[in-house]
Fold these 2 entries.
Entry 1:
Amino acid sequence: MLSQIAFWGAVELGLVFAFVAIGVFLTFRVLDFPDLTVDGSFPLGAAVAAVLITGGFNPWLAAAIAMVAGALAGLVTAFLNVRFRILNLLASILTMIALFSVNLRVMGKPNVALINADTMLSPFFGLGMREVYVRPLFVGVLVVIAVVLVWRFLESDAGLAMRATGANARMARAQGVDTRRQVYLGLALSNALVALGGALFAQTNGFADVTSGVGTIVVGLAAVIIGETLFGARGILLALIGCIVGSILYRIAIQLALSTDALGLKASDLNLVTAVLVAVALILPQLRRGGARS
Amino acid sequence: MIDLKNIHVTFGKGTPLQKEALKGVSLTIEQGSFVTVIGSNGAGKSTLLGVLAGDVLPNEGKVTIGTTDVTRKPTAARAGLVARVFQDPLTGSCGALSIEENLALAARRGERRGLKAALGPNRRSHFRERVAELNLGLENRMKDRMDLLSGGQRQAVSLVMATLAGSDVLLLDEHTAALDPGMAEFIMRLTQRVVSERKLTTLMVTHSMRQALDFGHRTIMLHGGEIVLDVSGESRKDLQVEDLIAMFRRMRNETLDDDALLIG
């Protein structure tokens, strides 16, 4: 079994990556735009926040600026796709690759430590609650706020236009929706959320690292798919809650797999375990429908 | 009102596959008039509808809807003037959204979309009433996904969607072609009612000669990218389906003769 610390650590990491999951949900599911920019915008958010915080900025302001940076990254991908008709997947890979260099420039070195800096969480330590609970609670509150805002947005007139763009672009245009603008808006929103996840990751873990983005998209997608497997397709709110639950369960499953001595897994097996988990999450719904298709 | 002046559309200009789809079509349709359009495959019917909807921008000519010059406006920018029902029931509505969400989307056609909830209690009850008028029992399924509906039910909802927001023009693109005969008849009756109640300027493309003569005030026939027949009033009343079919045959023979000349 997991120790208390390991369990709450997994929950905390799951909540941080819930922002990624919501972002991935917006692009993959709502806009039907497979966006790999997140592998770059997650460490971008971490880098921007870490550099600003060590530079003496207010950590909340730093996180807000990190979100703007993420949104800009999303806009670059949207621009390549909409303006020059570069295939969506490829456009996002180009941005992702470019962001690796950008992130190194932002930090000036491969990683920045935040050990003694004041973060968004600092005021909440020393209020009597143990740190191991404070962190997931703090991130959890932010996730709940994000879910409520995204949910209200997707059920508004503007959000409906975005959902129609992903589901039936021709119909959306016939209804007066400028589908190109929706792609810009959706990618900006998605990558802003992912960058916020990155900014929180840097602050809860005490560092930003240029390699921390590798596999972000798979983790986000895993969370979305686990959520869908559990809750099914029953409305926007449940899908968003599914993103959070999926993200947390994913982290706990990884922790369990790595800390169960009987399996003999090492930390370096993480990517393999991730791939197996995502594959299982993809296969389960098919089995439930009555056997895999031939 | 619709006004087309000397519309030329050429696809693949400058390539070996260059095709002149419309060759200088001019057409004026008065406010509130219902026009049916017939023609064989490749006659230019879909292109004509595309020019009005904004999917196809003409190489030459001027398109006016109401009092607005829309010649260079893309589909989304002129959607406030044009309502549309597609041939394929899957195209006209969003299968992944619920019936009421589709209606909410259509209710804001051509308007700014803000952050207000798309489905407040007022709108919900308004949509329910409008759907109840169809007598299909769909008012009890407002939260069902659109892709749970049959093709005919989807077309019926599409017609309601087309009339939720104000518009100058209704474009019907063979909107009963994919339906079984009973449902096609139901949709046509519904179309007739909607058009006359709302006094919409309507252009209906159809494959059915019967429909073309039974509905509307005026019938035009396209052939080879040109208007070859334009009848209304008394002369249209006398026209029989057989006459139209005979005209179709003649057109086809003409092209055959041309080919024969080439080969000979």
Entry 2:
Amino acid sequence: MDVKLPQLAEGVEGGTVVGILVAEGQIVEKDQAFMELETQKAVGSIPAPSSGVVTKIHVKQGQEVSVGQTLISIETASAKTPATPPAAQTAPASTASAPPPATQSTASSPTANATASDDYHYESKSGVAPPASPTIRKLARELDIDLTRVRGSEAGGRINLADVRAYIQKLQQLAFQPAPSAPAPAAAPTTTLTPAEAIDFAKWGAIRREKMSPLRRTVSRRMVESWTSIPKINQFADADISVLLALRKKYAPAYEKKGTHLTLTSFILFILGRALKKHPRANASMDDSALEIVFKDYCHIGVAVDTEGGLIVPVLRDADKKDLHQLSADLHALTEKTRARKIAIEELQGGSFTISNQGSVGGSHFTPIIYAPQVAILGIGQGQAKPVAIDGKIAIRTILPLCLAYDHRVLDGADAVRFLKDIIAGLEGFAEADIKLK
Amino acid sequence: MEPITTEILVLGAGPGGYAAAFYAADKGKQVTLVEQNPRLGGICLNVGCIPSKALLHATEILRERKESAARGIAFDKPAIDLDKLRNWKTGILDKLGQGIKTLAEHRKVKVIHGRGHFEDSQTLRVETAEGQKFIRYEKAIIAVGSKPALPNAFDLGNPRVMTSTGALEIPDIPENLLVVGGGYIGMELGTVYAALGSQVVVLEALPTILAGVDADLARPVMRAAQKAFKEIRLNTKVLKMATAGKQIKVTIEIDKQPRDELYDRVLVSVGRTPNLADLGLENTKVTKDDKGFIQCNAQQQTDDPNIYAVGDVNGGALLAHRASREGKIAVEAILGEASAFENIVIPAVVYTDPEVAWCGLTEAEAKQKNIDIKVAKFLWGASGRALTLDRPDGLTKLIIEPETERILGVGVVGAGAGELIAEGVLAVEMGATARDIADSVHPHPTLSETFMEAAESFYGTATHTLSRRGA
């Protein structure tokens, strides 16, 4: 069987082969990882769909592959003669040259060949038109639809009404898809970032060119998408975290003992979990096609992590249901995994809100970009000692710069300010009871 | 004189013409149908399909009689009354012709009898019994059909040299009949005359009778004809003919040597030519191909945007049912509907004894086009129904696309093959697979089971044969 790159996740169209973990002639077990692929924001491994002998590797390290592309060929166990499996362990070459499986069982219909591919095209060795009843053919003529583009689901690839309907729906989806998301990820940076005219930078001195990694391309595509599609507002605020820092100092050793760090981000996750429950619009998304606001009962917060390869945003699940210790432990694990590029694609998905904390690198106020289709993002700078007036007297306090960027289509200014005020209140009046380890 | 005006003019009331006229009327169009013969129905009804099938049926009992003795039921020598036979046949034609007339009246299709001649792209002049009439139309459909070819060398002006038109009249039962041309018309009419008692000799210039039919389908026909006819000579040409008293002297080339033979009558069945002479096409933009047939597109439209053409005048397979289908396509095209003669299977039936029928891709065509196919066959010798009919001389075969198991073509030879092929047409049009046919229950005992068993044999599981997979 030919093993093709599966649809790894919604919106992931392909990636770069960073490692091939098997060799031709080698035995693989079902679910054994045979290839490492850098896709979007992570390096993931591709599991073998069934056990067998690798008869051919179709791709090379460093090669870019897309969903549906054949990666390797496996001769499955069922195709082997009963006597072969034990022998195959030691003599892979002999099994590799074993006769191909019976024609009938693998004879793939034109349909089976292209299940994952979008540009399906019916081809018959006999040169005949695709199989479809006269009714369907007449319908296709009336709608001016080329039936060779329609994937038939019935025996022998016969096209029925449901197939034609599905095809039309697909066309409609494509037709109404917003333009920026239409081009393939590889093409996006060229169309959106590069100026129309190629500039010869070398005219002004020596230069060095570096190919954009899939991760870099994804970041740039998502940012352009967000920047161009969302009418955003940046709401600045300051929070006095002097008390919070004192509390942190008091309890940090206890947390360390339990193998985790009590960080400012843990506090913010805790506060956000509660605040988002109270302000569900900030945790919502907009469904453009249905003209509906999607409210989520869950609260999964994306945490922007700076890695060697660039920005990655893993998602911390159920922030509203976890206590501070659990959040700290999860955050630590997630960050480590991300920095090691071991994060799974699923762990990058499903976020309902995002935070970007630049405190560790010394950032101040900044305007973060909303991570569509989320509605808002909280940018956090570095806490700085500043003179503030308290009860008419100047005091030196640690002030945390905050910026809430939000999608004005979903969230109005007053909503956003109320939400931000609750976050500030959470930071300034964090209950000691919530810190104590149980 | 004020010209008659009409939305759609149909010239010729054969199966292509009347099907188009009626369909257009059903779709709300104002239609005028022009036909030169007093009886509607065209070649098919008057001098083609219908009278030939009537005669084949009437004479079938004469053929059966011979076989029946072996089954313990013997008959005396039959008494043949040709007048009665002709009257019975004519009665059928009248009934059907009247039926078409009635259908036209009910649809308010105006029928004008007369010879039509195009004056320009929108005017037809008709020579009627009451004088000239002019018809102004928006769109015209030409459906004037074809006639039997009679090469000049054979055209002696002697009625003893007949075409199918003359032969269908059965002027007498000639003692010796020479049939020139072993195509389906020659073989069918030869079968009629042989049953009536004529000594029939068939001459065919090609190395096979029924040219174009797969060899395995033609073989049982050849075998039966060799028994029923006096002789079938292949690779043989007729050089010339001459009147010799009450007979025809025919000069035949055998082994490159001319030889004279005497026959009471000769049937020339060497093909058909379109009825396009003196039609005034030169006054329109209609063009013809190098064989003299009208050129038209998949919507049946000719090079003259106002004029469509259907049926025999376009060449290809000269078949009534193809003409009817084209007639409907032409109407749909005129009405602006998305219609085209695409991907449509036209079945063919030869009413010899046994009959041959096929549809879709043939084995010979697949070979010629280098298409990879599998053939699944069922020989009727294993069919209970065929044996009870005393007709084991049949074969049903499916032409199958190996990768998809889709049925691309069907061929049947045997008693009633013409009726059986309909299932094949449905299978091919629907894009059915061999599995679809094999898994459909066919009634027992019938000849239709041979279709199912042929499909089963593709999988090596035909109940009544020990077939190899995909033979």
